[in-house]
Amino acid sequence: MNTPTPSSTSETDRQPSAPQPGEIRTFQLHRGRMRSQRQENLRRLAPRFTVAADGPPLDPATIFGRPAPLVVEIGSGMGDATAAMAAADPDRDYLAVEVHPPGVAQLLGLIEAGGLTNLRVVQGDALQLLRQRVAPASLAAIHAFFPDPWPKQRHHKRRLFQPAHVSLLRSRLAPGGVLHTVTDWPDYARVIQRTLDADPELVDAYDGWAPRPAYRPETKYERKAHAAGRPSFELRYRRR
Asked: Which domain holds residue 235?
């Protein structure tokens, strides 16, 4: 293994629904106080720019006001990189999924400030969204940048990249669609790589670690990781 070199929607924001019996979430909600500006963003902008994680199948053309290739981002964090990618890629639509209210609120503000008609937000569980609302073979790409590594052995069952989840992600990609992930945890990077290699319908686009593409901005978290001596491990796979 080498070292890494404006269309609005009528849907309103919902909190992540309770897990089903036996369901293990890949995230943990953190409760805390939120700045007043972000609270105002949620109150004022969520009805315009959010999509529910559960419900009937999505009609992206209705949500975005046009037919276009759709990208789902799992875990958009505070949204700066997501907003920058959407702004630089106006021919595709982006659906950013995030569970933490401060990140959702900040991204809503960025959508309004940037006049981004090709970006909407889901506050909820990405796997639930993909199972319930995203049609098979319908996505141009899925992005999962710096997913929680859940480093403790007893928490590995919560990791996003495990065979059953990868099977779901891959099934929602159109032929030729891209599954793109990056992590700064070497052990998890190897696990992700083995798991993706094991899926017969996915092909490694770089036969190993991929370079960071120009379209993916370097995040604040990533810069801190690099300053601490933790390189990023990037992987891009295509669906056959």
From this structure: 48-239
Spot the catalytic one: 54, 80, 89, 148: 148
Residue 112 forms part of a structural domain = yes
Q: Is 197 a catalytic residue?
A: no
Condensed to tens digits (0 to 9), the pLDDT of residues 22-33 reads 456 655 666 667
What pLDDT score does 20 carry?
A: 47
Residue numbers in the known binding site are 73, 98, 125, 148, 152, 184, 219-222
Classify 177 as helix, strand or coil: strand
Reduce the DSSP state of residue 140 to 3 states and report it: strand
Total domains in the chain come to 1
Residue 139 belongs to some domain of the structure: yes
Q: By three-state DSSP, how is residue 62 classified?
A: helix
Angle at 23 between CA 21 and CA 27, to 5 degrees: 135
Q: Tell whether 123 is covered by a domain.
A: yes
CATH of the domain at 99: 3.40.50.150
In the chain, DSSP assigns E strands to 70-74, 93-98, 119-123, 139-145, 173-183, 202-204, 233-239
Looking at the domain assignment, is residue 115 inside a domain? yes
Q: What is the pLDDT of residue 29?
A: 61
Report whether pLDDT(60) > 60.
Answer: yes
Which residue, chain included where needed, has tokens 């990781």? 225
Q: Which tens digits make up the pLDDT trace of 65-105?
A: 999 999 999 999 999 999 999 999 999 999 999 999 999 99
What's the mean pLDDT in 179-193?
A: 97
Feature table: binding site for substrate: 152, 184, 219-222
